[in-house]
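Structure first, sequence second, as always.
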């Protein structure tokens, strides 16, 4: 770098950049200090960092729509409208369901007093076929007072339980996962949809069948503020090794298909696998629900950064 540019100063008052006068003042306005020393060597590293960052952002926006979608939401408001779906089919992990219920209530309680927040809670996998197996429990703005919350939302959540096993010829036992997903997304534009399930679609006892709802997912994802969160457990297969492998393959096929839509920029989605160990599942569920239902700035930042990290990691690994 030429010697003439080795020592330069910046005047915070008038914006002058250049050499000092003999009186150690700004030649333009006469201000004494308020100078910032410019060094070509010192400016090179920040400039290089900014160039690398800009190049990375351009790369993700051009070639990895999933990462681009999450990066574009970095400074957007946190979600305020939610739809929570709980799988209560007879095959669901009941320990995980109880923990989800407890911590869902704690997280929603954190919204009490903020009437800009609204949420729905539904269960699916109830006895019956099609829409009969889906139950809408709560649809409300966040109550103003804790007593109102405890008497409505809290009481309703406490009553949620897995479906008891009954004779199938009398009451069909189903897990209409695709049916619930389609119905939940059809009216959820601009919302965060949180689903607790084992991701198994079972409507074998019913005449009406539901296919993977690709069109509903893409319509939902067209609104960039909409997103999906899956908190899922391993499918239960007892001691049958072959059945367990088949169910795991079915579960992974759904995850892969959703991730393919996300990579194409069709929908924003994250999957969180609940640990099998009950001691590990408790802190995991607590942490993930707090991020998915952020009632504090800290939880909102954790949610946003974890989604960006996951999307960038997926893009780098692809």
């Amino acid at each position: 770098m030429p010697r003439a540019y080795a020592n330069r100063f910046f005047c915070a008052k008038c914006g002058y950049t250049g050499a000092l006068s003999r009186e150690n003042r700004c030649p333009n306005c006469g201000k004494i200090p308020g100078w910032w020393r410019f060094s070509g060597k010192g400016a090179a590293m920040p400039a290089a960092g900014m160039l690398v960052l800009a190049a990375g952002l351009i790369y993700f926006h051009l070639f990895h729509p999933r990462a681009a979608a999450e990066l574009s939401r970095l400074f957007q408001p946190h979600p305020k409208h939610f739809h929570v779906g709980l799988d209560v089919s007879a095959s669901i992990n009941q320990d995980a369901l109880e923990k989800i219920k407890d911590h869902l209530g704690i997280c929603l309680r954190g919204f009490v007093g903020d009437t800009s927040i609204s949420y729905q809670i539904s269960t699916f996998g109830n006895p019956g076929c099609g829409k009969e197996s889906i139950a809408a429990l709560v649809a409300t703005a966040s109550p103003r007072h804790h007593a109102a919350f405890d008497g409505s939302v809290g009481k309703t959540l406490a009553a949620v339980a897995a479906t008891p096993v009954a004779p199938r010829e009398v009451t069909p036992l189903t897990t209409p996962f695709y049916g619930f997903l389609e119905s939940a997304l059809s009216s959820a534009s601009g919302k965060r949809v949180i689903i607790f399930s084992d991701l198994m679609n079972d409507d074998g006892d019913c005449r009406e069948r539901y296919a993977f709802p690709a069109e509903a997912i893409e319509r939902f994802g067209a609104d960039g503020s909409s997103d999906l969160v899956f908190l899922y457990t391993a499918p239960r297969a007892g001691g049958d090794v072959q059945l367990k492998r088949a169910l795991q393959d079915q579960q992974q096929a759904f995850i892969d298909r959703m991730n393919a839509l996300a990579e194409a920029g069709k929908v924003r989605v994250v999957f969180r696998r609940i640990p099998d160990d009950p001691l590990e599942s408790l802190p995991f569920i607590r942490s993930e629900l707090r991020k998915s239902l952020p009632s504090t700035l800290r939880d909102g930042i954790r949610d946003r950064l974890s989604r960006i990290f996951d999307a960038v990691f997926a893009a780098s690994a692809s």
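Margin note: Residues 40-63 form the longest helix (24 residues).
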